[in-house]
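Q: Got a minute? One more chain.
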Amino acid sequence: MSQQGHRYLMESDEESVRLDLKTDTDAVEKQALWAGIEPGMRVADLGCGAGKTTFVLNNLVGPAGSVVGIDMSQQRLDYAGSHYSHAGIEYICKDIRGPLNDLGMFDFVWVRFVLEYYRRESFDIVKNISKILKPGGILCLIDLDCNCLRHFGLSERLEKYLIEIMKIMENKYNFDPYVGIKLYSFLYDLGYQDIAVDVTPHTLIYGELKETDNFNWTKKVEMAAKASGCRFQDYEDGYEGFFKEFTDFFADFRRFTYTPLISGRGLKSFSK
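A: Always. Here it is, folded:
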């Protein structure tokens, strides 16, 4: 995603694959059903990425429903079209910060792992996307809290640099590791009704490391560390020394890592 001054932090040739591998279809289905998705709905999947989630949502609305997957990256949409196409799915390249009225109106709007990349604009984005939701329709916001920061077993210097990297991500790349805790207030301030919130572990890693978790986490840390510009002066080998210590830590069965996932959903007021 790199349009109109926005640089997607995780951009790489492997990003579509990373998004695909890390998406748990059972978790997506459970979250969408909790939020209130039903057969026959017209759904907008904003920030659809590699399309795997879009495909799950389409299965839930069935042949009487439809899903529009929207993303800023044409590369990601090309991947989605080749891996997750279906008669009920349409993929559109669009910036969710801009006008969306040409998309029509939706019964259900889904925003998962998107707002974390827009620290300064996140509330304005939610306000903007609310315009394409029908009165009485459902808005579901899902994101992380303390992203990449909750580990036990880190050395003092490794913990110091992970915190420093995330602070740089906030200031330099507009990334928000704490956006999950803000989702309820977004819905409340915009007048949504029947708001519900759920908190579950998104990441829960201990003992033997799964290959998908290893790929996802090492890629996230690699991309963020390189983008940060940190010199890693506490390491003789600089970045290489830091990254080796992290991968050694992550491969250790004693390591404990978790990230809270916060979901919020509300019904759009008929008076809005």
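A: The chain has one domain: 2-267.
Q: Perfect, thanks.
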